[in-house]
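Holo prediction. Input below; ligand is dinuclear copper ion.
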Amino acid sequence: MNAEAVDQLYLALVGMAAFFTTVICVAIVYFVVRYRAGATVNRDYRPSRRWSLAVEIAWCVIPLVIAMIAFVWGADLYVRAQTPPDGALDVHVVGRQWMWKMQHAEGPQEINALHVPAGQPVRLVMISEDVIHSFYVPAFRVKQDVLPGRFSTAWFEARDPGTYHLFCAEYCGTDHSGMIGRVVVLPPADYAEWVGSHQPREAAEAAGQRLFWEHRCDSCHLVQGVNRAPALNGVYGSVVPLEGGATVIADDAYLRESVLRPEEKTVAGFKSIMPSYQDELTEEQILQIIAWMKSLREQ
Ligand code: CUA
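Structure of the complex:
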């Protein structure tokens, strides 16, 4: 959906460059011919003060205006490309050497393929298990680095059903060139059917809940109610007051940090007693725990 807008900006910039290249080339050729050695022309153009000032102001102001147009245009597009609309479908993407793993909020899991419905915005929350990758779908003009240790997001809305290339666009080791896949855009009805027939044996939320019990998180965190640690229901998406008076929105990044580095942000009224789960959970498992916490909000 942003593809046309990106193309228009790109063509405008190329068009502008082509225009000035042409003007300058024509001027060069004209002057080379007109003032060639031996030609009898008037070469006595001495600069006058007023004329020079006017020229200097013009060559500052005109490029400034053009550059500001390009800047505002590009910045507006960038902000729109970075801000997923409300109600977007959530897909978690984990990149690693050398594959893409997708986890739909609605259940299905896929590797090196991403099925999405046409005409609906899709928000990708992405992280890497190892090195920097880059999620690149040229047809949608979407290219976003996928980093270890930090979520990055991207979004798109595919208009036409079909199959599109997915690439890794950041050199990430031996099989970087093989880290490819496809995005399959289905008509909404077909997509609903696809989701129904691709439910995993264990949904992400269920896996998150299982991890919660397996790692004995319940010895401090109750799902409902306060123990030695804050309750978990209703946390996702809420505003959390911190020790020291600051607040933070409990988004994916905050929850991930709280599992891996709980000492970073202590919730107001609690002691910083939680150990780090840095070496015990994979990024995929953390995403499952987040999915579970998200489902608690919706209950
Ligand atoms: Cu992953 Cu290149």
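Residues 95, 98, 133, 168, 170-172, 176, 179 surround dinuclear copper ion (CB under 6 Å). That is the main takeaway for now.
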